[in-house]
Amino acid sequence: MGGAATLISAATARAEISSSLIKGAMKRFKLTRPPKPVPDLEFLDVNDQPVRLSELNGQARLINLWATWCAPCVKEMPSLDRLQAEMPRDRFLVIPISLDGPSKPKVAPFYKEQNLLSLRIYYDKGRKAMSTLGVTLLPTSILVDPEGRELGRLEGDADWDTPEGLALMRAAMT
After folding, report:
1. Exposed / middle / buried, residue 112 (Cβ in 10 Å: 0-12, 13-18, 19+)
2. Which of 41, 74, 22 is nearest to 148 (CA)?
3. Contact between residue 51 and residue 44 where contact means Cβ atoms under 8 Å apart
4. In this predicted structure, what is the pLDDT of residue 9?
5. Residue 9 neighbours by CB distance under 10 Å
6. Those residues with Cβ within 8 angstroms of residue 98's Cβ, 6 or more apart along the chain or in another chain
7. How many Cβ atoms sit within 10 Å of the Cβ of residue 49?
8. Phi, psi for residue 94 in degrees, rounded to 5
């Protein structure tokens, strides 16, 4: 019984820590209370190989749904790339899932043009990511803890590599 109480206490503490970090560049971040399991979305990597969110449990993740035709998405991508460069990849991953569909061939050249070196390329499989994750606006970023629970989300673009963004991402890793 003590173990379960400790887990609940840790989850509550994480939510409380996160609420104190919702300021500055992260002021539009909306906490998910209580944290809820994220559906096990399947998407594709750059080589069209399937990846499931559950395969990444054990790492905190920032799932970002975006497209090359979305101006706020394009504006935000360099910040996400700098965020990933600052974070330990073995404990934290930015997962930018492209919703480009028919314009999928534009994604790799976009990464090259923007000099996005730290982000990996992922694609929505079967155009299901938005409905599966309950997203209605691009870009939307969903912060997931190492156990696979949504801690919160931010709709619209953000400056993720700011001190506030870095602090929030680090808090998600604990």
Report:
1. exposed
2. 41
3. yes
4. 40
5. 10
6. 66, 67, 68, 104, 107, 121, 122, 123, 124
7. 7
8. -90, 130
Angle subtended by helix axes 163-173 and 71-86, to nearest 10: 60
d(CA 111, CA 122): 12
- Segment 4-52, tens digit of pLDDT: 433 444 444 444 345 788 999 999 999 998 999 999 999 999 999 999 9
Reduce the DSSP state of residue 165 to 3 states and report it: helix
pLDDT for the residue numbered 56:
93
- Residue 126 pLDDT level (bands cut at 50, 70, 90): confident
Query: In CATH terms, is domain 2-173 a member of 3.40.50.1000?
Result: no
ω into 139 cis (within 30 of 0): yes
Residue ranges of domains in the chain? 2-173
Considering only CA atoms, which of 149, 130, 139 is closest in space to residue 53?
149
The conformation of residue 22, written as its DSSP 8-state character, comes to: -
Query: For 87-100, what is the mean pLDDT?
Result: 97
Question: pTM for this structure?
Answer: 0.90
